[in-house]
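Field log, afternoon session.

UNIT: design team B
ACTIVITY: writing a sequence onto a fixed backbone
BACKBONE:
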């Protein structure tokens, strides 16, 4: 058996990437006291060294600072790797209530491109959430034009339910374009995409399910077990308020980690990447986190280990959101 999980194609016609990416929503934000400072250049460098080249950001992450830091970091390390063109940058349009014209999408896209600072198309442009004054038809047809004029390479959505996905997919299909992905909350403690039809719909339509909160905001790393308190908004998340409920799962992650000489976080990410056409994008702020997360797909959990994790995590129930 191969030692590493195979690459994954984004959508039906996208690039092949390692089956893990880097999330950047904490970049450029306020850090918790005593936390290790964000080092975006080291994260990008270490990801590329591990063969990982998918980076997720959004225009609303820290008022564009995440996009800027990501672009700067990629440009900085590009000379070392000479493969800037191989990097897939995924960013997102925020359908804010005052955005009521197609022109506002084009302006937002140009803003993202300026901040990221590449003289080339955005790899994957996603609609951040489905609630919008603009109709799905207006959103999709504007993105279809952006794809045709070469501003973006692929179109994705985020937080769409199965029905919304089918509708967006159909509109693009009528334009001769494929919807590539849906980005949703999915982890060992949030199996909702398996239950609400989103995973099944993605698989049926050939969309990649991009999994955010794959570490349940760090809870699945086990580092909050010893009474350490989570910082910021995380405090209010169910997995931190009811931390002891995770103990059996964390014990199994420990146990499997020992067998494979991996950390609990790596086991949790490997489980997710083993689901068909699922791309986890753990947030990483510094080199060690990035390296650990990227190496999470360089081993294989045995089938029965995947099943045991699936079974146990189901019995724990759904956590991992703000509410
Ligand atoms: N589309 C959407 O609506 C949406 C929503 C949320 C997030 N996202 C995307 O999904 C990405 C991932 O979500 P997320 O970053 O919020 O949650 P996450 O990946 O579940 O958790 C990331 C947090 O866990 C900790 N961590 C990361 N790697 C670790 C490791 N190896 N060991 C121990 N702790 C580790 C870090 O916290 P510390 O640095 O504090 O240790 C990090 O901030 C985001 O960056 C963003 O790109 C999308």
């Amino acid at each position: 058996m191969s030692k590493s999980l195979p690459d994954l194609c984004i959508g039906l016609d996208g690039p092949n990437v390692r089956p893990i990416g880097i999330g950047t929503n904490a970049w450029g934000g306020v850090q918790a006291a005593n936390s290790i400072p964000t080092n975006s250049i080291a994260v990008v460098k270490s990801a590329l060294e591990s063969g990982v080249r998918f980076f997720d950001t959004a225009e609303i992450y820290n008022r564009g600072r995440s996009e800027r830091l990501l672009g700067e970091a990629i440009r900085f390390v590009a000379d070392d790797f000479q493969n800037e063109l191989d990097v897939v940058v995924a960013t997102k349009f925020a359908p804010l209530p005052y955005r009521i014209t197609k022109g506002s999408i084009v302006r937002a896209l140009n803003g993202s491109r300026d901040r990221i600072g590449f003289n080339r198309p955005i790899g994957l442009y996603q609609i951040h959430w489905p609630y919008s004054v603009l109709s799905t038809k207006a959103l999709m047809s504007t993105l279809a034009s952006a794809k045709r004029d070469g501003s973006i390479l692929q179109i994705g959505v985020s937080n769409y339910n199965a029905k919304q996905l089918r509708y967006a997919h159909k509109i693009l299909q009528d334009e001769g374009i494929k919807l590539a992905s849906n980005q949703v909350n999915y982890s060992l403690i949030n199996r909702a995409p398996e239950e609400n039809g989103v995973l099944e719909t993605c698989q049926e339509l050939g969309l990649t399910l991009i999994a955010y909160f794959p570490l349940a905001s760090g809870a699945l790393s086990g580092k909050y077990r010893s009474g350490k308190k989570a910082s910021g908004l995380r405090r209010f998340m169910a997995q931190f308020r009811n931390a002891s409920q995770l103990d059996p799962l964390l014990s199994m992650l420990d146990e499997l980690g020992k067998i494979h000489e991996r950390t609990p976080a790596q086991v949790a990410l490997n489980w997710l990447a083993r689901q068909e056409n699922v791309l986890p994008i753990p947030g990483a702020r510094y080199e060690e986190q990035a390296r650990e997360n990227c190496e999470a797909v360089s081993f294989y959990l045995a089938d029965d280990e995947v099943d045991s994790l699936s079974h146990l995590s189901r019995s724990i129930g759904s956590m991992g959101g703000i509410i």
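LOG NOTE: The CA atoms of residues 17 and 304 lie 26 Å apart.
NEXT ACTIVITY: expression trials, pending approval
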